[in-house]
Amino acid sequence: MKKTWKAIMSFALIATMAFGLAACGGGSSDSGSADSGEQGKVLNIWCWNDEFQTRFNDYYPEVKEVAEDGSTTTLNDGTVVNWIIEPNEGNNYQTKLDEALLNQESADADSKVDMFLVEADYARKYTNSDSTMNVADLPGVLDATADQYEYTKEVVSDADGNVKGVSWQACPGLIAYRRSIAKEVLGSDDPETVQAALADWDKFAETAQKMKDAGYFMLSGYDDTFRPFYNNDAAPFVEDGKTLNVDKNIMDWVAMTKDYTDKGFNNKTSLWSDDWAADQGKDAKVFCIPACTWEIDFTLTGNADPDGTKDPAQSAWGDYAVCLGPVNWCWGGTWITAATGTDNADLIADIMIKMTTDKDILNKIATEKGDFVNSKSVIADLAANYEGNDFLGGQNHYALLSDAAEGLSLKIASPYDQGVIEKMQAAMKDYFDGNADLDTAKANFETSIKEIYPEIETVNWPE
Q1: How distant, in Å, are the alpha carbons of 229, 371, 448 from that of 198?
Q2: Are both 156 and 110 inside the same structural domain?
Q3: Which of 85, 203, 258, 308 has the fewest CB atoms within 10 Å, i.e. is most exposed?
Q4: CA–CA distance, 296 with 177 (Å, rounded to integer)
Q5: Cα(254)–Cα(430) distance, rounded to whole angstroms?
């Protein structure tokens, strides 16, 4: 039986709010159809950083002005967009969002959540609940998405196949590498030459040894290769709501990372740390980093050129290039959802259409922001005609990725992924550092998982 949104959220609070939604029934087409009457004059958008906010302010044609402190955007019709930004770490964003959604029905119109953004790691927690509207109930949106990559619809579809969100981007993964180091150690910085040296994990290890012998690290840290392994898992971490199955790919990542740490192939950093960021700068001794498309634009460029000079003499600007690497993979992305109960459904529909399907806008986002946009035809045109990315030394990375994006899948995504991944990386860090043996790291992982997901009864490890 389909549960009401209040019942779902009450259960979620009792069973640790951020996770109870995983088992709830999927919303069907009657779970919040759009009213085409008078629209509200306040639009509350929830997100965890300013990625979408920046693109919205720069490219949504109805933007009139942006407040000096960036907290609000005013549209041409007078609608005020409030940006509610809560950091993602430690499930903070989900927890705060869940609290707001719990009060959605009783909140006054100008305080309701109207739109909220989700990542692949927890998208299905919300798309398999009544908190999100079906895209089919938003005027014109579903028909406009015909040119989008199928996996971007798959990850935000509910159990009945209803699409519950849209994205302006797709996120195939790459290996970003330093051209100068490639020339010194491999004799060439040409992407085809480097790809041959990184074509599979055995060749990747051979190249790592060459880097070590030449005085470089292959990778910065422990977590850099996690996503390429995870994204090739055979099944979701949790399928029945009570059993967590650790895939063999995850343990292959553990074994490789421990080996690389012991051999000095990595610089022993952790994802998002200051040392990890510094390893992407001009004077760093790290050869490469697995990076999906948003990470190149949103993270790598800033770390490589922290002062924003775009000067190769002062930064690593232009000293990077990309190749596909050992496996096909993707990492995350950002999806726009309409919150059930919004009084701005028509406006949200217009935002979704313009920001995720308008080819002129998507072309600008691609060429000016570097995003791999969610339009097969726009990407095909860029693959044929783009003059090249300055940060990547003039490389046309769209040509490299246009075919790869077609085969992407996130069928393994589950509502538990963010927590499981963070706890796995934290537990195994002790093992990599030599502060715990493998059995102890596994036990610590199991303990931490049951603390944040009390409904998980069993953790199974591969033989």
Answers
A1: 15, 24, 35
A2: yes
A3: 308
A4: 11
A5: 12
The whole-angstrom separation of Cα 20 and Cα 350 is 32
Residue position matching structure tokens 């965890």: 48
Helix (H) or strand (E) holding 263, with range, is: helix 248-263
Q: β-pairing, 115-119 with 334-338? A: antiparallel
Burial environment of residue 89 by CB neighbours within 10 A (0 to 12, 13 to 18, 19 or more)? exposed
Q: What is the pLDDT of residues 223-235, one digit of tens each?
A: 999 999 999 999 9
Do 101 and 21 meet the contact criterion of CB atoms below 8 Å apart? no
What tens digit of pLDDT does each residue of 347-399 get?
999 999 999 999 999 999 998 988 899 999 999 999 999 889 999 999 998 88
Residues 293 and 181 in one domain: yes
Residue written as token pair 């990850």 = 155
Residue that is last in its domain, among 284, 302, 329:
329
Residues 371 and 258 occupy one common structural domain? no
Which DSSP string corresponds to 340-371?
TT-S-HHHHHHHHHHHHH-HHHHHHIIIII--
Q: Kindly report the pTM of this predicted structure.
A: 0.81
Instruction: Answer yes or no: do 311 and 336 share one domain.
Output: no
CA 245 to chain centre: 22
CA gap 302, 311 in Å, rounded: 13
133, two tokens: 């509207």
User: What gap in Å lies between CA 185 and CA 211, rounded to an integer?
Assistant: 7
Please give the residue range of the domain that contains residue 204: 173-329
Give how far the C-alpha of residue 311 lies from the chain's centroid of Cα atoms, to the nearest Å: 29
Closest listed residue to residue 126, CA positions, set 14, 201, 22: 22
Residues 227 and 275 grouped into a single domain: yes
Give the type of residue at 316: A
CB 163 within 8 A of CB 193: no
CATH value at residue 271 = 3.40.190.10
Query: Contact at 8 Å (CB) between 386 and 396?
Result: yes
Claim to verify: residue 76 and residue 118 sit in the same structural domain: yes
Rounded Cα distance, 178 and 283, in Å: 11
CA-CA-CA-CA dihedral for 148, 223, 184, 317, to nearest 10: 60
CA distance 415 to 236: 9
User: Which position has the token pair 């693959």?
Assistant: 383
Specify if 306 maps to a domain.
yes
